[in-house]
Amino acid sequence: MFEFDHPTVLFYNSLSRRLDATTWNEPIRVDYGERLIHLLSTICPERILNAKETQASTWVYVVGDISYFSILLFLLGILNECYSGSYKSSLLFSWLSSQKIRRETVLMADNEDDDSQQRVNEGDYVVLKRGDIYKAVQIQKKKKTVFEKQWFFLDNAVGELYGTTFEVVSGGTLQPRKPKHVEHAADAKEAGTDNRHILDDGKSQKLTRDDIETLKEQGLKGQEIVQQLIENSTTFRDKTEFAQEKYIKKKKKKYENSVMVLRPSCRILAMMYHGREPGKICHLRYDTLAQMLTLGNIHAGSKVLVFETCAGLVLGAVMERMGGYGSVVQMYPGGGPVRAGVESFGFPPHFNETLHEFPIQHVNALLAGTLDTDAKDIDAGRSPTSEGQEKKVRMEEKRKKLAAAAVLLQGRNADGLVIASRFHPCPVLLGLIKFLAPSRPFVVYSQYKEPLIECYTKLREQGGAVSLRLTDSWIRHYQVLPNRTHPVLLMSGGGGYLLSGTTVTTDTPKVNTEPTSVEEPAAKRVKLEEETE
């Protein structure tokens, strides 16, 4: 019988001591909590011998294969402390699937997490969605939010689950939409065979704009207004079934005051920026951003250098992929870093501890060893005013951040480099690639291929990089409806270009000055054909 205070220590030590054992017939006491014990009972109930609840905790006795069971509990113990939600299940799923454990078991553990993590809280950053339009806002009570020419308050969103659809009622109040089956209007009406006799003269609708405004003042909801428009249309019955559905969809989009509250993510924010302000993110599409994260091998625990002018979207995507573990050094131009997109992610406070900043103009000084991180602003120190003291404090904080980032860069052992900016990438890449350790990936994004061709040529000339690839990404959206599946008429023409590669050491081997004897290759053996008489 073995009893330990912490299961992580228990199974790590037992695994190291009994790694060669195939079975462990002695029971093990596991003392961790109801949630983990319930998960273990679900995964392998045949290995649970006894369970007992005490005032302090819940424990069970288990028995089984150490190589299977200890690794499972070790991973569960670590992940139960460090991760939560779907991120934990994604880390465990690949290993659990190899052990033929159903995915529903892991999802059950996610559902038992704190329910408050799945609900909207005051101060959270959320993304509002209506159709294909997105907007990132912060939940603040009694603050008017304007979205798609409509204002409302987000007070009632607090406490609701992410993904809830709300209706905007009178006074700008949000009301959760109740799930109900609504009979399709096109099914209740008769449809025509074609639209050739329908004239678009603007006289088919009996309701005027004033009548519609009156209906809104009376408190009619969007669905009811759409129904009124259908009933007062003289040409609706003559339209084909597909045309009727298209008409209803268009009117719902215009008159239904609904909004969905989503949790921010890399994909949603990338779609938001690309749809609203693509110039702010250098026209970086979300599928290209996904390829950048893959080619850069971004993962937790690594040290990544990021140089971007995409409003912080690329930086936030890297931080989200790393999960708050490792180090991210943001190389920024100008007077300070831009992190508007990072704030929209709504990261926990401990994510900021992994983020560092370093000005791009000091890279050459750092490489030459002449960077002075102890320099102070003399004028700010002499000023006796409060403004001067505040400036002194800001300069001191900036100096400390510069020194901390310089320490990370001086080792020249970074694990990855990601570049996506409006500047010419060639000088930036040639300068920052020196901070990467050998056999580390780098990826550069540009809206145009000519700058990346120059980078490709320079890297081939100077060496230090292999597996260079210049690629472009292309995506096509499809409308998938019965008998109406076809590509979307309006879509992005290009997703930019990516240059990726892997660093290698450029140290030249020592030349041996001693004379060496060069053996001549053996003479080629000639096969002689025998002459036959």
TrEMBL record:
Region entry Disordered, spans: 505-533
Keyword Lipid metabolism: no
GO cellular component terms given for this protein: nucleus; tRNA (m1A) methyltransferase complex
Alphabetical list of Pfam families matching this protein: Gcd10p
Coiled coil: none
Protein origin, superkingdom: Eukaryota
Subcellular localization, as worded in the UniProt entry: Nucleus
GO process annotations (BP): tRNA methylation
InterPro entries: TRM6
Biased composition (Basic and acidic residues): 521-533
Keywords: Nucleus, tRNA processing
Family in the record: Belongs to the TRM6/GCD10 family.
Protein name: tRNA (adenine(58)-N(1))-methyltransferase non-catalytic subunit TRM6
Protein source organism: Esox lucius (Northern pike)
